[in-house]
Amino acid sequence: MTSVMFLKVAYVVAWVVYIGYLARILVRMKTVAAERAELERTSAKNAAASQSNP
Amino acid sequence: MKKLAPISILVTVALLGITSYFALVVAPTEATMGDVQRIFYYHVSSGWVGMLCFFVNFVASILYLWKRSPASDALAAASAEVGVVFTGVLLLLGMLWARPVWGIWWTWDARLTTTLVLWLIYVSYLVLRRFSAGGQTQVLAAAFAVFGFVDVPIVYMSIRWFRTQHPAPVIGGGENSGMAPGIAHVFLFTLVVFTLLGAWFIWLRYKLATEEQALESAHTQAALKGVA
User: How far is A11 from chain B (nearest CA, A)?
Assistant: First the structure.
């Protein structure tokens, strides 16, 4: 492997790690938002059920 | 969230793209090592941001121990994770630079060893946060972070205190240190842009941490309502 190959690999590695980390944050944000929406839906459903069956 | 994802990708690609262009095209070729020296721009900038993140983690941890504010805890978690990512890149790029220049991937000299220990300290910090049970996780993590930060000045001083395979400091290293003006300008530019990239990642990760805290609190409230 020539030294220029090491240079190219280094930059590709850095890009992959940084973009991969960003993707991981965005996926986790989406999961948390979906979980929160689901929780709110369930809570609203439970509240409505407890009001109709006192 | 719908708008945040494309904006985040755009900002990150733009910051990485502009630094790659300056490092690979604009910067002059170094006389001794040739083109492979261009790894320097990403290697040192990643290291700088990593150390900065650990400093933010240190301050946020002290603030958490003092005020017990959830925002400080979220900032500490965010900065530690981003610091681990940047320090991980620092180590990887260091190995990819060492192989063609030194003929070896790794050596147990003071700079490399203390940096690896630093990375392991903050990986342990994240593992502690992730797997510790009970209500004292944040306090334990904050105390761990305050002690863990002790390694940061040791990493910085290691090439001043010991004779190492790693080069002597090029900035603030005495009379024989310094860079050619063309290299110095690109280096400073990369350093500033990487600092912005680090701040951007911390902000995104902080936002995620606060949303996770809100979700946890919503779960607790829902459970309490269920019991009541």
Answer: 7
